[in-house]
């Protein structure tokens, strides 16, 4: 048989007795990648199956049988193990190869020629079931019932059978060297040269001249016939590649999407690259598995998913990748008590403070040595490179940008990751894989563009949305230190995030990724931060730097007081300059000393309480401080009422702010932080201030006889004896609020606090405690949405 070697244009004539051995080597490399990509595809299917289960349980908790879910989780674990085994098998064979780009042993692309009567061009055909095995795999009424990695491999290799050799085949260059088979190139003096077949066009893009290719191949095969009796049966009239579409149509801008759909460019021509690097990328993209090119089938070796595309002729992979997986990773937080327990060897309830899921959505072009290293290594590393680059504010700045590189450190699949770095997630991350020289030589890493997304509970379908973009690490940033894996700072008027690569790319990844919050992302970031605080029970979060929290506090306050969109504050310094956040707060404090301004603030809060809800307890405390300041003019501006009708708008506004507290600890935090700067104070002291504010019944200490103040105790006893306290507490919010409006704030607090949930229901949008929906949520099962939980039954529960 004769074969065209693509990188050199040589035609090899292989004697009949050597053909079976050569085909065995072709088959070995082919089967390795078939198993690797199939394992990826099955793992993606197992993930999708669990996603469907989580979505179904969110609608009807009892709709999925427990044995079905248990089977699905077990199958995911086996799929992970199978993929790891397949990756190791491929790497083991790669160990015989030398550094890519060197003159040593490498993978060579070959194409068999039609060289005898009866040969026909290769035509890839869809399997008989046309992907039916995937549809069956997502049937939630049936179990997979696989046992171990070997069991899941056996089942799906039967479902998606290996279909043999296609027109593109791979062989170790050492095989060609040691066998020393006859090879032919440019053999006819006045004939077609390889340089005429494969050459750049007017635009500089290399392409294959279809008409000259057939003449060139015919001339080389004729030379082979004349060289030895071994090849006398070769028929020049049949010469062509077995799969002409796989070579001649490479000129077109042929791409295969992650879904396996072929897309042909109408006008632009592709750049046909026959280099060793492009060949290696085609191999890792499944190029040898089909004449039309097997697509990525899930996520290749870099464990990425998304709208991935393969530019086959150019040997590159690009598109939008979701890392560490399509559904991201759950971040959870450990408090001091949990960390102490772990240090003592005790177990900790790591699902208690699930903060929410995030994922990195990025675009990268995997091409050349770096691309092959990323595709073939078992994990991803990140290195920082000094350069001038555009920041999220559009300005070009000197900084360091994260760049991807391959890593030998074995990746560890995890659905949930501890941001404090104290849990076992970050320990024993599966060690280091055997070194493979083939992947060496990647210099400088690969630049990436992208953003980090969070799963938003306000979205009906619980979809991800962007809250920060990959951005440079600038001078002045502290980054992460010690065992911490996440840090949020406020530098030059922008929220900046430093995340350990293990969060973004999966445990085992090394380095850090720097991100920044742009103007259009600021609103989403504020929501994300609120839910981090809420899901942690409004405990202090170590990964938020003091300056960042100060900025967040001021932002929440200013959003309400000034009524602007959050993007209006993008780029504002924290302090020092006149337009800084702190200076603006000082100016507003002076402005709000005017009674009319305080009344206007109260009216603004009553008109749009949701602006208050998603702010920090400190921001709410600052608002209440302003609302509880009043003078003689306040009485006249706010209706001139006395007793229970004194300052009704400001008092209603205070209650409205307090009603935005979603859990008990939230309400306590808000009251503790009442003050001009939201500083923490005594809960009892501030409760006393609120009691006095609501007990006031007229200007300058005016006293209505028989009501509050002088007769405060008699009045409170009268109110309390007139109503059933349990009825009041569990009744409509308006009835409860009348307790405070009638002067008894202490009783309001005692009635409301027990009705608040102790923990949030993760995955549900936060509601005011006065909302009827809050009562339904509180009195329901209080079950976290499966897509927001890593506890048993949650989508992000442990895969181990």
Search tags:
single chain; 800 residues; alpha+beta; 13-stranded mixed sheet; five-stranded antiparallel sheet; 15% strand
How would you portray this structure in words?
With 800 residues, this protein is an alpha+beta fold. The protein is 38% helix and 15% strand. Strand 10 and strand 11 form a beta hairpin. Helix 1 packs antiparallel against helix 2, helix 18 (617-627) packs across helix 21 and helix 25 (733-741) packs antiparallel against helix 26. It is elongated and about 125 Å long. The model is unreliable at 258-269, 291-303, 709-716 and 718-731 (pLDDT under 50).
Brief summary:
This protein has 800 residues and is α+β, with helices and mostly antiparallel strands. The protein is 38% helix and 15% strand.
